[in-house]
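Ticket #4471: structure export looks truncated?
Reporter: QA, pipeline team
Priority: medium

Steps to reproduce: submit the single chain below to the structure queue and open the exported record.
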Amino acid sequence: MKSFRRHSATVNAGSMADIAFLLLIFFLVTTTISADKGILRQLPGDCPPNEDCTKNIKERNLLHINLNSNQEIMVENNVVKLEEVEQLVKDFVDNNGSANCDYCEGLQLLESSEHPKNAVISLSHDALTKYELFIKVQDEITKAYYDLRKRYIQQKFKKSPHEVSNEELEIVKKAYPFIVSEVMVKPN
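Actual output as written to the record:
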């Protein structure tokens, strides 16, 4: 009688390395790698010829925000929390100190800006300020302007910010221009 011995089945793995290599090449070729875009800021253009671009700004139209080396946020030399920055910027920009802004809802304080078109945010930071804090403060300033512009769009055009045309958006940007001066304070 014959004995039936079963041999274990084997898989020919000789070409596995070739297949893995081809799959690796396939995924490298077909995968898209996202590129970081960085911070989206539009730099000011060159000064037009025969024009003075170094105009004096009244002190009341300038909101000083300073980030020191202790990672503290100081607005007009008062230490504030990050969560307070947005409202402080809104109150300053929308103040209507000259009482000639028909769309402003500010308290017309004598120490805040005359008009949103004159308001300048001066953001200065120490060389030892952490990048994360600097970006967070910039975000709070941007949110303040976004909220002011959003309210203006709803009042004037009866639309949401995503529904306005490019021409309407330009009108909004002129009503609430985003003017921020960023300066690094060098250590002594």
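Status: closed, not a bug. The export was complete when the record was re-opened. Leaving a note from the reviewer for reference: The CA atoms of residues 17 and 23 lie 10 Å apart.
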